[in-house]
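Shipment paperwork, digital attachment
Item: protein structure file
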Amino acid sequence: MFLPSQSSKTLSKNKRVQTFIPQNPDYQAVVAEKMLGNHFMNHLGFQSTVVKPGYIEGFLNIEEHHRQQIGFIHGGVIATLADLAAGFASFTLVKAGEAVVTAEMKISYLNPGIGNKAFCKGYVIKAGRMLHFAEAEIYAENKGEMVLIAKGSATYAVIVPQI
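Attachment content:
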């Protein structure tokens, strides 16, 4: 985990990490395969570092094309990182042959995205039969310090892809 002040048991002082049992015992291999096939994620350069049931961590090395005109990490990149982390965290909990798609999403930008590396984590709050509720936190590393730059919450619909 990338935040030394947080243990694997707590996300913050008041939130307990919920333990989930994946419905697909091969979820890690399926997630890895889906990540390889996610063209936009790979175009951005996102890399996952932790994949657990209901939980994902990853990072993005920030390059010039990830920045907006002032030099901050672009809000669209930050929102994409939140969607990737929360979405793949949700995907770890579906049955074989199922997928998730974003049904709704909210992003709160808390601090400017200043730095050369962005980290994100996504975690499921509630996994239902048809909808999963998840959150994401995005951090920027600036001069060795981790700064929370955004929080996202999203709902993912569980589907059986028809293509």
